[in-house]
Amino acid sequence: MFDSAGDAMLVGHGRDDVYCYVNRSACGMTGYTFSELTKMGLKDLVHPKDLGKVKDRWEKRRNGMESSCRYEIRIVTKKGDVIPARVTVTECRREGNDLTLAIVRDIREEKHFENEMKKSLGHLKKELLKDRSKWETLNMDLYQSQQAVSRLANNINNEKVYLEEKVNVTIVSKVMPVINDLLAEKSVRRFWPEISSMAEHLKSITTKSKLHLEAVTELTDTELKIAGMIKKGIITSEIASVMGLSPLTVETHRKNIRRKLKIQHSKKRLSKYLVMLMDG
Predict the structure, then answer these.
(1) What pTM value is reported for the model?
(2) What does residue 113 show for φ and ψ, rounded to 5 degrees?
(3) Whole-angstrom Cα distance, residue 176 to residue 222?
(4) To bridge 103 with a disulfide, which of 11, 13, 88, 131 should be the other Cys (CB 3.0-4.6 Å)?
(5) What kind and span of H or E run contains 46?
(6) Virtual torsion, Cα 105, 110, 112, 118, nearest 10 deg
(7) Please, which residues bridge with residue 100 across strands?
(8) Res. 80 pLDDT band, cuts 50 70 90
(9) Are 17 and 100 in contact (CB under 8 A)?
(10) What's the pLDDT tens digit per position in 93-126?
């Protein structure tokens, strides 16, 4: 179980903070060999700017102020790459020896997801705030959704099920109805591509469909925007006008979408298939 764990796991002697055993994931994450890591301590892998945090927590454990702790740091690999990580450290005693178990989780995808969500929400918020009186309600709902997603990312280990449900309810009951209204509002027509892309990313959070998740991952940002508008029944010429593309370019994107969704040889209507795939 230790060697097959997805997270990096490192066991060290409490007295010298040098690892005596590490698993395969630790080697994979850091780029160091087993032999190299067992001559190192956590402080040897930590970004210089995070050393103060690590030393502070180490002193608290040594003085008996806490037996275990969890915090975020940056790990520097053998190649010099910087990886954001969440570290859980636990002190234990086995056969008369004080041991320290450090579990290090790579949270790059979690941070990327959180940053992209904040960026998208921030862009939409900036545009909508130009008419504060009209979009005040949407602004509050988007803010609440952002806060819920942030809490999901920070507490995913302990509160995953509860926060996922809260995010799903907020998105489905509050955010999505407003976004659907925006897609029907001609006055914000020039923002349709971004709004459509936002809608599909939000739905990918709430969906249980593996096909939907694969589609959102497989399609480029431009293809996802076009797919969202096709699903809403917006015709090629109008999509081309909104996105500043030629109708021929939009048709090429439609073909690429069909190919990536593996329906290029099917007679299925793309708009209906997208509704089934993304809204079903």
Answers:
(1) 0.41
(2) -60, -45
(3) 21
(4) 88
(5) none
(6) -140
(7) 12, 91
(8) very high
(9) yes
(10) 666 567 778 888 998 888 888 888 888 888 877 7
